[in-house]
Amino acid sequence: MHTTQHMPLAIRQMFRAFLEGVQERLYASSMPRDSDMFIVRLERFFPDFYTPLLQLYGQHPDFASQLANLGQRMVAAYVARPEALRLLDIKRQIIPDWFQHQSMLGYVCYTDRFADTLKGLSTRLDYLSELGISYLHLMPLLKTRPGPDDGGYAVQDYRAVAPALGTMRDLAELATELHARYISLCIDLVLNHTAHEHEWAQRAIAGDPKYLAYYHTFPDRTEPDAYERTLAEIFPTFAPGNFTWVPEIAGGGRWVWTTFNSYQWDLNYRNPAVFCDMADTMLFLANQGIDILRLDAVPYLWKQPGTPCRNLPEAHLLLQAFRAVMRVVAPAVIFKAEAMVPPDELVRYLGVGAATGKACELAYHNQLMVQLWSTLATQDATLMTHTLQQMPPTPPQANWITYVRNHDDIGWAVTDEHAAAVGMDGPQHRQFLNDFYSGAIPGSFARGARFQPNPATGDTRISGTTAALAGLEAALEANDPHQIDLAIQRILLLASVSLAAGGIPLIYMGDELGLPNTHTFLDAPTKAADNRWMHRPTMDWQQAAHRHDPQHPTGRIFAGLRHLIETRFDSAIFHGAASLQPLWSNNRHVFALVRHHPTGHILLLANFHPSDQTVAADVASAAGLTGPLRDLLDTTGQPLPITAGRILLPPYATMWLTSSDPPPA
Ligand code: OTU
Fold first, then answer.
1. 368 CB-contact burial (10 Å; exposed 0-12 / middle 13-18 / buried 19+)
2. Atom 6 of ligand 1, nearest CA residue
3. How far lies 546's CA from each of 40, 143, 340, 552, in Å?
4. Confidence (pLDDT) at 586
5. What is the Cα Rg of the chain in Å?
6. Separation of alpha carbons 493 and 472, rounded Å
7. How high is the pLDDT of residue 237?
8. Pocket of ligand 1 (CB under 6 A)
9. Mutate to test the pocket of ligand 1, among 158, 187, 261, 296 (most ligand atoms within 8 A of CB)
10. Residue 297 Cα: closest atom of ligand 1
11. Residue 372 — left, alpha, or beta (φ > 0 → left; ψ -120 to 50 → alpha)?
12. Closest protein CA for atom 10 of ligand 1
């Protein structure tokens, strides 16, 4: 007897039809309890994928057949799901907040740059365990096109691993090894576009109408020109415009929608067959043991004339539908949205309003990242406090991914409104940040470089590693001990805020050691034009050997980071369901943020100034901390330095304050 009471009447009928389509095959190929389990989950999540799909495709002639197709693929994937992963599905349904636990800590690396191959990676797991890693994001590792591949984001085959890294079997084996260490595995799913060399694109080129409908193609410039009027340019230098003329498409060539590089063809999600094929791809990867899918470039999934074709409501409906399909077949798997968009738009990827609990579990907190670097340059936390205060609250079942650096450039997603609200000029501030981090401002400690300057808009972004942008590279070159101290403090300051203000904090490979920029990419013809490679170094295991040397800058960074990580592990207040509230510290150099959790509160204070700063101690009581204060990061056992009612923060210091009084029962 199925429980459909919670479904709207109109949906119950559709549910029964869907169930009828799958149950015979299900019971024929699965144990009775497993089949029942699938149906229990289907009952719960059918409306969550059917409703958005109906909205997206209800008018499409293939809707009914593709829905039936989806059902078949879901059952096939469920039947094929390995036993160990089925158990993980159940475990994670019992512990639905598994990814919010304070022990979650991520590491991000390129397989080849970290350990050559997937097999090589399994010999480096002790290093990750030493850091306390419980989440490993391997940068794109599926088979890409030959030649330039945008760092792996131009996929030719979603079901094969790049041959240089290993095989799909190696990946599945690595996942098993990681699971034995309680490390979950994240990989990229580039679902907005395929490579020009992908089979679907090749069939489109051959003139197959079925596959031409997988992409957005146009016989002439009429539609592309109309679209361009409201589109932005992502890579204005090496891939200007959003459309590419592909002469070899049968019938004399066509314009193809290519938001990113000319060899990255945007998929046409108005076609339900594309949704089905991508859902099937997700299920395939789930069955290899992947725990988290990083959904690349999700703001761009849906196109609509007269709009920026970014963050459209339909893109969110697609994510909800994918999400619900996954929850039926492979609920151990969660989604991470990659959307580098303004604050209000960003939170929607975690699910707000009617989408609460239906969107991605994780999203990159690019606003925090941008504000960290902005504040480090200005030494003034006003814009950061204001911007983060304006963000809608994080939905409690979802988590921010916090990070200091990643493999991409830093795009200054500071809105003009937020800048104006604190008396700043948006364009001027963004220009200042670009000048500062490219080292063009005299006295700047940064060693970054401009990425994709767009003469038409004046926009540009910044490349460079954390150590280069935070001044360590320049300080080491100058052999200036004081500057080295300051740079290390800056690096740990950013890490401390990232660890305290999430979510799952990610460490980008090399940042734990302070790796400098690399310039070897300039000799590689497929990379030279893209200076994001300067912050994608090869792991320097010789430098890593210094990580336990307390005198060496690497040892100091590593130990500082380890201390933050261990401290965080120990407190339930760092659980991701805590609410986050930025506060005015009444000292513009000091950023303050409080985490509220049923077990207590933590007040983060972060001094972004290279001199001592003080903050009135009553900021703690305003944050809800009563009784004597304790800094969780302090190991000296000394009382908190409060003089004349003010807390003293040394240059670039952070504190994680808590009250010694237990919270009211
Ligand atoms: C992502 O980034 C990846 O992180 C990049 O490395 C890829 O080049 C790109 O997709 C294409 O696959 O514009 O500058 O709002 O900001 O998807 C990086 C989302 C990017 C975009 C983001 C994109």
1. buried
2. 408
3. 53, 35, 35, 7
4. 96
5. 25
6. 13
7. 86
8. 150-151, 153, 190, 234, 260, 296-297, 299, 338-341, 408-409
9. 296
10. 17
11. alpha
12. 297
Q: Which ligand 1 atom minimizes the distance to the CA of 407? A: 6
Sign of CA dihedral 449, 452, 457, 462: negative
Q: What is each CA distance from 400 to 106, 143, 369, 502, in whole angstroms?
A: 12, 29, 11, 5
CA-to-CA separations, 226 to 217, 242, 307, 368, 662, in angstroms, rounded: 14, 12, 10, 35, 62
Q: Which of 291, 338, 380, 409 is catalytic?
A: 338
Question: What is the total residue count of the chain?
Answer: 665
DSSP-derived 3-state class of residue 97:
coil
- Active-site residue 296, yes or no? yes
Residue 408 CB coordination number (10 Å): 17
The reported pLDDT for the residue numbered 664 is 53
Query: Tell me, what's the pLDDT at 6?
Result: 82
Token pair in block for residue 383: 């814009």
Q: Which amino acid is at 69?
A: N
Segment 384-442, tens digit of pLDDT: 999 999 998 888 899 999 999 999 999 999 999 999 999 999 999 999 999 999 999 99
Cβ-based burial of 6 (10 A; exposed 0-12, middle 13-18, buried ≥19) = exposed
Spatial CA neighbour of 47 closest among 68, 81, 18:
18
On whether the CB atoms of residues 416 and 426 are closer than 8 A, the answer is yes
Q: For position 626, what pLDDT does the model report?
A: 86
* pLDDT for position 132: 97
**Per-residue pLDDT at 258:** 98
Residues of the chain with pLDDT under 70: 1-3, 661-665
* pTM greater than the 0.85 cutoff: yes
Q: Which residue has the tokens 């500062």?
A: 436
Residue 660, C-beta contacts closer than 8 angstroms, at least 6 positions apart: 627, 628, 629, 630
> What is the model's pLDDT at position 2?
59
Distance 631 CA to ligand 1 centre (A): 38
Rounded to 5 degrees, what angle do the CA atoms 547, 536, 119 make? 75
What pLDDT was estimated at residue 627? 84
Residue 236, Cβ density class (10 Å: 0-12 exposed, 13-18 middle, ≥19 buried): middle
Per-residue model confidence (pLDDT) at position 637:
78
- Structure token digits, residue 523: 């000799």
Predicted local confidence at residue 661, as pLDDT? 60
Beta carbons within 10 angstroms of residue 618's beta carbon: 12
Cα–Cα distance for residue pair 464/448, rounded to 1 Å: 5
